[in-house]
Amino acid sequence: MAMIRTADGPDGITLHVQRLAPPDGRPPTATAVLLHGLLTDSLASYYFTVAPALAAAGIDVVMYDHRGHGRSERPCADYRLADFVRDLERLLDRLEITGPVHLVGNCFGGTVAFEYAVRHPDRVAGVSLIESNPATESWAKEIADIFRRLVTELVEHEAEALAWVNANEGGHTARLAKSAARLMRSTSIATDVPASRVLSEEQVRSVHCPVLAVYGSDSELAGQTWRLESLVPGTRSIVLPGQGHSVLAEAPGLVLDLLLSGIREPGGTPPVPVPAEGDAR
What we know:
The chain is of the alpha/beta class.
């Protein structure tokens, strides 16, 4: 574990970073940077699912808590997409990672990863999106609707919302929801993220690295795979049957196989996912 300051001066931020190296001192075959989602998420979602196995497969794994999340610093403002991308840029510089990396992004983490690939095509070997989309106009509308609903249902009626979550989803989920409510109350994240600058169609089309997109069949995003494939011809989409938005947590074995395939053979045909016995579904 490390706490890393992204830059000297007032615009720097301290991020909680975890790095897993291949075992036995073997030189890594690739570097993968894992980016988590918003509000209820943190690097723990990778640490307890696919990260250790990726490292065991010979990959240098970097993961960190986004600003405002987990153990990273929580500024009051500056939560637009560009701020998250700048954190990634500066963190890789601090870690002296200069070669092309494989970016893996879950939900909003994938949006950050795609934007980084637009800005730094020479520093990205491939992008794997898990239940995620680039920051297009439709993305902005959807994220604005989500935050509007969360502010109304969770922040303005927090006690009732947390009681319902605790009764129906359990104490752990209720604690995550409470943390999300606190983040939205104490920072500008609920207004900043929806106000982020979106990518033009030309910018989306400019991404030429291999893109792997993984969705759950029960997710609303699954029906939008054609859109990304039409804009980025190198995209390979996989829809996992019986899964929803939480596919990383619910089917980590299937996601791991797809990620390993995407990292080892960028642009290749992903394997047909086969549920492993005992794999969480």
